[in-house]
Amino acid sequence: MKKWKLKHRILFLAMFPVLVITILLASVIMISGVSGIDDALKARGMVIARQLAPASEYGAFSGNREILQTLAQSVMKEEDVKAVIIADARNKILAVSGKPSQLTAGSTDAADSGHIIAGDRDGLIFGAPIYQSQIELDDFGLFDRTARIKGEKKKLGRVFVEMSTASTQRQKNRFIALSTAIGLLGLAGAFLLALRMSRDVTSPLFRLLDAVTRMTQGKLDTRVTADSGGELEALENGFNLMAMKLQSAHDTMQERIDAATSLLTHQASHDTLTGLVNRREFEARLQRALTRTHEAGIEHALCYMDLDQFKIVNDTCGHVAGDELLRQLTLLMHDRVRDRDTLARLGGDEFGLLLESCQLDAARKIAEQLREMVADFRFIWHDKVFSVGISIGLVPINHPMMTLADIMSAADTACYAAKDGGRNRVQVYEADNDALIQRQGEMQWVTRINEALEENRFLLYCQKIMPQQSVEDEEIHEVLLRIAERDGNIIAPMAFIPAAERYNLMPAIDRWVIKAAFGALRRLIGLGTPKSFIIKLSSASLGDPALLDFIRQQLSSPAILPQHVCFEITETSALIKLSETIRLITELKITGCRFSLGDFGSGMSSFTYLKNLPVDYIKIDGTFVRDLLHDQVDYTIIESIRNIAQAMGLKTIAGFVESEAIMTKLQFMGIHYVQGDWVGRPHPLDEL
């Protein structure tokens, strides 16, 4: 709507409510009218059936079929009656009239209750029981004349009446057509009225627009004629008044500009939520402190702080509660730092604290005080109370060769080490700490992964997944990932995947894999040798809202056959993002893609959540396959998974098949596919 002309916007605003109201009213009228027509037919059918039943009593009692046939034929004269059947108590048909399409004398329970017993788009069937009337006989004086012998109420048979819905359908069609025509006429009238009104509104507005244009060109003496009436005339008068005051306010404009510039300067260096220094300003101050260390040997300290359990507050109570928690913690922490120190919000729930002219021991005490203060703090939101902690990475700034990047990297590493060490603790950075060295190694992988993406040095390998239950099952290849180093070495995925997952690089890697695998699939289809690929998706990608559109774009190539594509998600990833995973699977299965649930059995709720995941394959966790021949528990687990998969119509895949004996055992157990070094080792996908 932003690109629409004003006239079109006014027409839209005038017509949209009318359109919605017309549709709603027409819908209500049509639904109620159609329902009334249907109810009338049902009521008439019930009346006919219930009237025919007592009329058939004598014929059913005496077995006189001619009387019953005459009754059945007389009922056929009623409008919309399509067929009539009269049956005895044993469901033997005594009389039939018309051409029953679906009528049966076997629906005894519904017929005895006197309700509709069947129906479809062509007709409705009504049934009613035939009872023998109650008879009272006097004993004619043989006994006490007040004594009577009462006959029991006896069921003689049943009647079935089939009513045609053709007539009512025509009535409904006419009613719907009439309602639609009336609605369209009303919309047309409303449109003509709205068109006239829009002209009356837009003409004065166009004059105002022309006047505003002249004002922007510096012609401050511009005025408009105020004669439009109503609110538009008030707007014209207001414009003229504004133009007169604009000239007088011109002299004070520079002062206001200076004030606004000062405000923008403050906003550029401060966080709008907490009022603290932002990351850019914090790094500038840190760089100045580092310069003083280089020049005068002054020691400082940096605290990199990350809140623990902050995501729980956000997910439970929403971002408004999370923002309020950050504001309250900011006030608490600000009271505990010195005036010369700098407290900053670095982003999200991460804070930085620059302790100037502060040695390590004093900095550690301040960090511990902050940690204890946050741990003791209780955040109350409505009826909920939350405890949060804070993990702090502390870095002494005392080496003249340290750079800003070195300090921030060391602080980030120490903070993550504090989280890995149990959270809510202070971790001092030490260059010879093995855990910190490992963390820095992971951070170095971030650079290597990004370079591999930019230089297209990722490689696709594949491993065969062989069917072993049916010749109709196709051979599948699982797509695997490698990195080719500049020196030619091939890096296995477990060397870099943990770092990629920790630093949120998996979505970019997954997209590269999908695009490259689809390219290989197109080449194979072009060569006339199509293969089916299993492509793994990480948990980070499952939470990416743009992933579905990306995959659809890749599938849009006419050379791609979706039935050759199977995406694998691990059980753990699926449970973390269950709703997103179900939506992704559902949408892509519509296109023809398939899904596999990997590492099945490794989670705590496998069978519970499996019912909600519409996958096609289950890949049994390899830890159960390795010792299958020697561990009865592993055998029982695999057998249970096989039974569940069979009941749900899913096919099973067993990985880590490292011997012929394991493969034979799995085939005997009914596992559909096997994968492992015995079946085939991973090799470059191009070799296909």
Short overview:
By secondary structure, this protein is an alpha/beta fold.
Strand order in the largest sheet: 15-16-18-19-20-21-22-23
Put simply, the count of helices is 23
CATH class of the largest domain: Alpha Beta
Q: Give the distance, in angstroms, between the N- and C-terminal Cα atoms.
A: 52 Å
* CATH architectural group of the largest domain: Alpha-Beta Barrel
User: Any low-confidence stretches, pLDDT <50, length ≥5?
Assistant: 137-149
What's the story with the biggest beta sheet? 8 strands, mixed, barrel
The CATH homologous superfamily of the largest domain corresponds to EAL domain
- Number of E strands: 24
Oligomer: single chain
Radius of gyration: 41 Å
Helix % is: 40-55%
The backbone outline, from C-alpha atoms, is extended
The chain-level structural class is alpha/beta
> What does the average pLDDT come to?
83
Annotate the secondary structure layout.
Layout (H helix, E strand, L loop, with lengths): L5 H50 L1 H6 L2 H11 L5 E8 L4 E6 L9 H5 L3 E4 L3 E10 L3 E3 L9 E3 L3 E11 L1 H51 L13 H20 L3 H17 L9 H18 L3 E9 L1 H8 L1 H18 L5 E6 L2 E6 L4 H17 L1 E4 L2 E4 L1 E9 L6 H17 L5 E3 L5 H21 L3 E10 L8 E9 L5 E2 L5 H6 L3 H21 L5 E6 L1 H4 L4 H9 L9 E6 H6 L1 H14 L2 E7 L5 H5 L6 E4 L1 H5 L5 H17 L2 E4 L5 H10 L3 E3 L7 E2 L4
Parallel strand pairs: 13-14, 16-18, 18-19, 19-20, 20-21, 21-22, 22-23
Antiparallel strand pairs: 1-2, 1-7, 3-4, 4-7, 5-6, 8-10, 8-13, 9-10, 11-12, 15-16, 15-23, 15-24, 16-17
Helix pairs in contact: 1-5, 5-6, 9-10, 10-11, 12-13, 15-17
